[in-house]
Amino acid sequence: MNEIIYLDNAATTPVKEEVLQEMLPWFAQFYGNPSSHYSIGYETKDAIDKARAQVAAALNCQPSEVYFTGCGTESDNWAIKGSALRLAPKGKKHLITSAIEHHAVLHAMRSLEQQGFEVTYLPVDSKGFVSPEDLKAAIRPDTALVSIMMANNEIGTIEPIAKLGAVCREKGVCFHTDAVQAAGAIPIDVQAMNIDMLSLSAHKFNGPKGCGVLYIRKGIAPLNLLDGGGQEGRRRAGTENVAGIVGLGKALELAVSSLEQKAAHQKALRDYVVQRILKNIPEARLNGDADKRLPGNASISFPGLEGETILLDLDMHGICASTGSACNSDSLDPSHVLLAIGLPHEIAHGTMRFSFGPQNTQEEAEFLCETLEQIIPNRRAMSPIWNSRKA
Questions:
Q1: Is pLDDT above 80 for 258?
Q2: Residues in contact with 344: Cβ distance below 8 Å, sequence separation at least 6, in sequence order
Q3: Mind telling me the catalytic residues?
Q4: Domains observed in the chain
Q5: Residue 386's pLDDT is what?
Q6: How confident is the model over 33-50, as a mean pLDDT?
């Protein structure tokens, strides 16, 4: 068994060896600027075009609808702010999102609120689902954009995106989805799912950090987030990260080609851990839907304890996990996602997220369970919160 057991694949993933080998020549051997009009510039442009075609094939869209960015956060901000600012002069200053979005979406929305926009934050049910009926009721004549994530980064719930997109299509409202957790993990078809814009990030599916995508359906025109040169069809300025883009295209191609096999492997590990922990550790609870969730995600609450304590204990046993989103790991506030599904603060604080990748093994899953079965009772025996509940 590995010295380190990495069970935080929702935070980031290791770059696959095949992806790394695909990227290496584009750092030094083929170093031309894709905007330069000579042979070594044409080589890098061709590499970007190839990656664009790989992404388009994975999403079922046209290559001309794929725009490379620096990360998922940039893609979210471009879709949301660009759409809002484009339609504001037409009197459309209302936006809709959900209460459980990633902070890249929520903070972009709050930034727009400070500029005079109005945002409706749709509630979710106890499993984390957004209701298409709630969305339909919330859309107004002045609604500029709806942004609902495809799958939640903390509890793994997969939203009914096709139905939500159909509501937006019926109402004539642009629909964006943050698919950063979903891309490379579940099938995506932007046509069948009625998606107008979609964000993804390479490092979530064994690609490099620092490279993302915004899919923009033909006819949708958010204002540019970055101004400068004419890269990415004059819509996203800045010299392209050629090696990163090559790696993103290859990683997504590999992820999609092995999607079914990979999902089955991760789901088997997830289900083993969930079933064993819920059976052997009193009052442990699974967050999110048992079935309509990302194959590698297990969000489990351990009442009476602080997640940070469990995290440190696991680290001492060589296990890497998370108390929630890596992008909010420095905050001691309870997860907004867990509060939104109705968990009280004290249970939300004791929640762990285990996210499995294709590299994880049954032996590692068993060791995780053995470790939790040891540390949770020991910590509870010392916990005044747990003991006061049992008094």
A1: yes
A2: none
A3: 327
A4: 5-13+259-390 (3.90.1150.10), 17-257 (3.40.640.10)
A5: 83
A6: 95
Taking only the tens place, the pLDDT of each residue in 307-348 is 999 999 999 999 999 996 545 555 567 899 999 999 999 899
Identify which of 152, 151, 147 has the alpha carbon closest to the alpha carbon of residue 164.
Answer: 147
Residue type, 179: A
**Amino acid at position 101, single letter:** E
Find, among 257, 180, 208, the residue nearest to 16 by Cα.
208
* Cβ contact 252:58 at 8 Å: yes
Q: What percent of the chain has pLDDT over 90?
A: 94
CA distance 75 to 70: 8
Following DSSP, what letter does each residue of 145-171 receive, concatenated?
A: EEE--SB-TTT-BBP-HHHHHHHHHHH
H-type alpha helices, the chain: 17-23, 25-28, 39-59, 72-87, 103-113, 132-138, 161-171, 231-234, 242-257, 259-280, 307-316, 336-340, 345-348, 362-381, 384-390
The mean per-residue pLDDT over the stretch 97-106 comes to 98
Average pLDDT, the chain: 95
Tokens of 143: 């609604």
Tokens representing residue 249 in the block: 């295209």
Quick one: pLDDT at residue 384?
81
User: Could you tell me the two tokens for 341?
Assistant: 């599904």
Cα→Cα distances 214→7, 81, 329, 330, 362, Å: 28, 13, 25, 28, 36
Which positions ≥6 away from 234 have C-beta within 8 Å? 224
What pTM does this model have? 0.96
